[in-house]
Design brief:
heterodimer, A: alpha+beta, Uridine Diphospho-n-acetylenolpyruvylglucosamine Reductase, domain 2, Uridine Diphospho-n-acetylenolpyruvylglucosamine Reductase, domain 3, Enolase-like, domain 1, four-stranded antiparallel beta sheet, globular, B: alpha+beta, Aldehyde Oxidoreductase, domain 4, Aldehyde Oxidoreductase, domain 3, seven-stranded mixed beta sheet, five-stranded mixed beta sheet, 20 helices, binds flavin-adenine dinucleotide
């Protein structure tokens, strides 16, 4: 029927990483990994006229994860949530990333979805990407021209747009060994329900306490702006604090208002997001404090 | 009818017999409408995009670049439907329900986003979908009612005259005691009271979220002479509709009217149906009309299936409501007077709103003894898709308001909410607000106590008080609370409704798969997941003393089965099940009177239960082999198989008065106490339901597993309504018509639901059974919000109790504390 030509979706399968890079260099193909973001669009004819490069078969080159000599974690482009969660060292050293992974969709999604896909998809409501950002993760990009790295902190250039060139793919995400041990890590997702939920507001934080005061902080906000983002004013306001008293609370709230202007949408409201994010920051500060 | 309601160990009633339809459902072998073998065209619906206006024209935009060639399409608009029916002279383009205000297709004025304007058919569903977007509807806009709570401006009036009755679908007043004597007498009740407690409660629209979206296949049979040519055949023709539905005879009524066909010109067949919950009560009539029009236009089968978004956006939902409540109590917390004002949002057309309003009105004051009552109920128009039937049918809205209000009253009086209920619950011989005296042997106090014991109410209250106090001191954000709701639900149609329905059931002698005699049970009641097939099988098997395998349940098909009424109102097991038992009895009497079965076939040892469970009015039991032999003979007899029939008869006792709104509203009620235990996190204002107990008296548990499933399913559906589910509208358009943003609970959101049953058999239900389908929808929301309110110390009065809503209530209370 006439329909076929107009609804055409093409999917090219990459045989090797080299093949994938070759194909990417020739035409702007959209990468397909676990497909858990992409397939949602298929529901309403959203894939019509799009051209994909399926890299899901490149497990031997892009799959898995490894621990580097300096203690950093290298997450391959095809590494799934389920795979990393099965690693005892990841559980021990990166509890915030594991907490985020446990809350992505539910079991089926975690078996198929990848960290790289989550990062590249660029949703402001993503769960793994903000944890990675709070861990100072770096994005490794490959193309025929070679390999380059971009800190995740500089990766997002706007709503669902990234620093990746169309001839590049994410080959890995690198998570440096976090300072301050595990007790400074905090992750909390406030979703629309317990599982299979989109984040209404979320905080991924690393708050380092030393000698009774906060010496360093990473505060990453989810669903509070057009991209996941670091809240630098809050980070600054936290640094040097030894007591979260009333004055500190209002300073943190003022800093938050300088960093983040959340919006009303179909899932939640600006007032809720602002109030709860503030409470999450206070919770993070108190829970990371050594007792 | 089996006497005495006694069950022996050999009865199948009272046991969790496996569902006859389980295997095909679990294995996927069963065909739902979209799975049926089909060759024909696909249909689609073009809909209005704004809330109210007048249609001035249609434009079919060029679609060559997206593969749409309009010459390949069949197009139907209101212009294809004549303006007067050749049968009765009225406009066929009206959906026959309580009123006729809703068109199948917009002719001129339209009243909601998504109103069907034009129908398209094409062989390729993908091309079809693209074509829908290419039809431009030219309109002039008219002022729309976007908030049913506001009185309409003159320009917004679409029904009745400007004034107090503007846009009114229906008004109902329930009145009792001093309210019957007039305003002065009623006011005096409040003047003299020790406490007057006021509150306002709101509930939101809820989507039924059946797993299978709506869908219909239509086929026409026309004479050779009409195979081509005019749209409307000149000679007799037949329209066959098959699809997902609860009520084949509702569809039949609507379709005969639209197509101006005699009763036997329309055949409605229920396909396997993946859930309904009220959402497939009336809406399938509209889809059937649309599919039928396209089938008639093309003379080909047409399949019209909604996808999830279309189904969620444009089909019916639970009526939103607002209730103002004022209670007068004496110093001890005894209720003296209730003054209640209920408004339901009917949406754009009347549909079922009057009967939803009626059920809400009758259940409003619950199982409580209140001497003076006025409940003023209104259903009003707004420019959203019509709200319709949904499990509970008006009762969840009023029960929510009333049960929430009792907790507020208890705090005002200074007693425990449970104690307040205890002091006001009816006992046998007391009258409800509608002046129906309850003469059945109820023991509401005892049943409530059993629920409270199972839910450890006292222990929890004490533990939570200590926990919350400690949390306050330590700065922990967690708060705990327990809440209760006590309520009832009347099964069957309201008032004289069952009399008007005059349901009929037929049981036919048949030969079973094993070649031996058995029966086929013919009703129009549909299996929609609730277990109707199983229950009817159990009832007929026990009524006749046959093995389960000797009982077949006929497919609901209006050419084959009598009209036993719709599958709604918790009536299938109780009302229709009773008719199944009576029709079984009739069949045996006929076997006897025609001599196929004789005294010689009587069981030699009638006290042996295994002989046959059948014990008719004369206490006769037959020898099983003889009975099956007689049935086999009767199945093959000349002139067609022998049939047993039963027609509904109103139980003896009083009547219902539709004018005074007093009398016997329902033959019986199921009674319940539900308990919810919650934990609220004041960091995020999220509520977790930590425990739930659902305890109810239901006459007789016909099938324990199914009954427990009904209760748990209903409770979980109500938990969604209480905490998560919300329909978000912008300019009359729903903005979250998908499962991503319309959030229903998953298993991770709900606790185990502990289910308890008490049984006090009802004389006019099969083996004493009462209806239970809707009951579990009524109680959870108030129990949960009572628990949240207890936990956070702030009254939460609107649904859903989302974190956003709880946050606003808590922060508002804190800031008013600071300022006062
Ligand atoms: C039911 C359901 C629930 C979900 N729940 C959550 C949730 O709770 N939290 C959450 O964060 N997400 C959720 N998601 C979204 C999704 O599962 C995640 O974002 C997942 O990590 C995406 O990974 P993927 O491999 O499936 O990506 P894909 O769908 O294959 O791709 C996603 C995007 O990334 C690009 N991409 C993929 N791999 C690469 C690469 N190596 N280099 C460059 N670009 C690449 C693709 O082109 C595409 O744009 C959910 C999805 C579904 C369907």
């Amino acid at each position: 029927m006439t329909a076929i030509a107009h609804s055409a979706v093409s999917v090219h399968r990459a045989r090797t990483l080299q093949d994938a890079l070759d194909q990417l260099s020739q035409a702007p193909l959209q990468l397909l990994a676990g497909g858990t973001d992409i397939m949602v669009e298929a529901n309403h004819g959203g894939l019509r006229g799009r051209h994909f490069l399926d890299i899901s078969g490149l497990g031997s080159e892009l799959g898995g994860h490894s621990w580097l000599p300096d203690g950093a974690l290298r997450i391959g482009a095809l590494c799934t949530y389920a795979q990393l969660q099965a690693d005892a060292r990841a559980q021990a050293e990166l509890p915030m990333l594991m907490a985020a992974s446990r809350l992505v969709g539910a079991t089926q999604i975690q078996s198929r979805g990848t960290y790289a896909g989550n990062v590249e998809n660029g949703s402001p409501a993503a769960d793994a990407a903000p944890a990675l950002l709070a861990l100072d993760a770096v994005v490794e990009l490959r193309s025929l021209a070679g390999t380059r790295t971009v800190p995740l902190a500089h990766y997002y250039t706007g709503y669902r747009s990234t620093a990746r060139r169309s001839d590049e793919l994410i080959s890995a995400l690198i998570v440096p060994k976090p300072d301050g041990g595990v007790s400074c890590q905090f992750f909390r997702k406030v979703g629309t329900r317990a599982f299979q939920a989109i984040t209404k507001v979320g905080l991924s934080a690393r708050i380092v306490w030393q000698g009774g005061q906060i010496t360093d902080a990473r505060i990453v906000a989810t669903s509070m702006a057009a991209t996941i983002c670091r809240a630098h004013h809050i980070e600054n306001a936290l640094r040097g604090l030894s007591d979260i008293d009333a004055a500190a609370k209002s300073a943190l709230r003022r800093a938050q208002d300088a960093d983040l202007r959340p919006m009303d949408d179909v899932r939640s409201s600006a007032d809720y997001r602002a109030e709860v994010f503030h409470r999450l920051v206070l919770q993070a500060a108190s829970e990371t404090r050594p007792s | 009818m089996p006497d005495g309601n006694q069950l022996s160990k050999d009865h199948r009633v009272g046991k969790s017999i496996p569902r006859p339809d389980a295997k095909v459902k679990v294995t996927g072998a069963l065909h739902y409408v979209d799975d049926l073998p089909f060759e024909g065209l696909y249909g689609a619906t073009v809909r209005t995009k704004t809330a109210r206006g007048r249609m001035t024209g249609l434009r079919f935009k060029d679609g060559v670049d997206v593969g749409v060639d309009w010459r390949e399409f069949a197009v139907v608009t209101a212009n294809d439907i004549p303006r007067t029916s050749k049968l009765d002279g009225i406009d066929p383009n009206q959906v026959m329900l309580i009123d006729r205000d809703q068109p199948f297709l917009v002719r001129d004025e339209f009243r909601h986003v998504g109103e069907p304007v034009c129908l398209l058919a094409h062989p390729d569903p993908e091309v079809l979908r693209r074509a829908v977007d290419l039809v431009e509807i030219k309109t002039e806009s008219l002022p729309a009612v976007l908030d049913y709570r506001q009185p309409p401006t003159d320009a917004q009036v679409q029904r009745g005259e400007p004034g107090p009755d503007a846009n009114l679908f229906k008004r109902i007043v329930v009145s009792k005691g001093a309210a019957d004597e007039g305003d002065d007498a009623f006011s005096k009740v409040f003047e003299d009271a020790a406490h007057i407690v006021s509150g306002t409660y709101e509930t939101q629209a809820q989507e039924q979220c059946y797993i299978e979206p709506n869908g219909i296949i239509a086929r026409v049979e026309v004479s050779e002479a009409d195979a081509q040519g005019a749209l409307w055949p000149a000679n007799p023709w037949k329209l066959i509709i098959e699809g997902s539905m609860q009520c084949p005879y509702y569809v039949h009524k609507a379709i005969t009217h639209l197509f101006q066909l005699p009763d036997d010109g329309v055949q409605i067949i229920q396909a396997a149906t993946g859930g309904g919950f009220g959402g497939k009560e009336d809406y399938p009539s509209i889809i059937s009309g649309h599919a039928g029009l396209l089938a008639l236009k093309t003379r080909q089968p047409v399949k019209l299936i909604y996808d999830r978004v279309e189904d969620m956006a444009f089909t019916t939902k639970r009526h939103p409501s607002r209730t103002h409540l004022r209670a007068a109590l004496d110093a001890d917390g005894k209720l003296l007077g209730i003054d209640m004002d209920v408004t339901l949002d009917g949406g754009a057309y009347l549909t079922l709103s009057p009967v939803v309003l009626s059920r809400g009105a009758i259940h409003a004051v619950g199982p409580y003894r209140v001497p003076h009552v006025r409940v003023h109920n209104r259903a009003v128009l707004s420019n959203t898709p019509p709200h319709g039937a949904f499990r509970g049918f008006g009762a969840p809205q009023t029960v929510f308001a009333f049960e929430r209000h009792l907790d507020r009253c208890a705090r005002e009086v200074g007693i425990d909410p449970v104690e307040l209920r205890r002091r006001n619950l009816i006992i046998r011989g007391d009258a409800l607000a509608i002046s129906q005296r309850i003469d059945e042997p109820i023991e509401l106090h005892k049943w409530m106590d059993e629920a409270l014991t199972a839910g450890k109410y006292e222990e929890r209250r004490a533990a939570h008080a200590a926990f919350n106090e400690a949390a306050e001191t330590s700065g922990s954000p967690l708060r705990r609370g327990v809440g209760v709701a006590t309520f009832m639900h009347g099964a069957g149609f309201t008032g004289s409704g069952e009399d008007y329905l005059a349901s009929e059931v037929m049981i036919r002698a048949a030969v079973g798969a094993d070649g031996l005699g058995g029966v086929e049970v013919c009703t129009a009641n549909t299996e929609i997941g609730q277990g109707a097939i199983t229950i009817f099988t159990q009832i007929a098997a026990d009524a006749l003393g046959l093995p389960l395998s000797a009982v077949q349940i006929a497919k609901p098909d209006t050419d084959q089965v009598p009209n036993s009424g719709p599958t709604v109102a918790s009536r299938t097991s109780m009302v229709v099940g009773h008719l199944v038992a009576r029709a079984s009895d009739d069949l045996v009497r006929k076997l006897e009177s025609q001599g196929t079965l004789s005294d010689g076939d009587l069981h030699p040892n009638p006290d042996d239960d295994r002989a046959s469970a059948l014990s008719d009015a004369r206490g006769r039991k037959f020898e099983p082999t003889a009975l099956r032999g007689a049935l086999a003979t009767a199945a093959a007899q000349d002139g067609g198989a022998l049939e047993g029939w039963a027609t509904y008869q109103r139980p003896p006792g009083g009547k219902w008065n539709d004018v005074t709104y007093k009398g016997i509203a329902y033959g019986t009620y199921a009674w319940a106490t539900y308990l919810a235990d919650v934990e609220v996190d004041l960091t995020t204002f999220e509520t977790r339901i930590t425990d739930f107990v659902a305890s109810q008296e239901i006459g007789r548990v016909l099938n324990p597993l199914l009954a427990e499933g009904q209760i748990q399913g209903g409770v979980v559906q109500a938990m969604g309504w209480a905490l998560l589910e919300d329909t978000v509208y912008k300019d009359g358009r729903i903005t979250n018509p998908n499962m991503t943003n319309y959030v229903v609970p998953t298993f991770a959101d709900v606790p185990d639901v502990q289910v308890l049953f008490q049984e006090s058999p009802y004389a006019y239900g099969p083996w004493g059974a009462k209806g239970i389908g809707e009951l579990p929808m009524d109680g959870p929301a108030p129990a949960i919000l009572n628990a949240i309110s207890a936990a956070v110390g702030v009254e939460i009065d609107a649904l859903p109790a989302s974190p956003e809503r709880v946050m606003r209530a808590v922060l508002a209370a804190q800031s008013s504390e600071v300022s006062s």
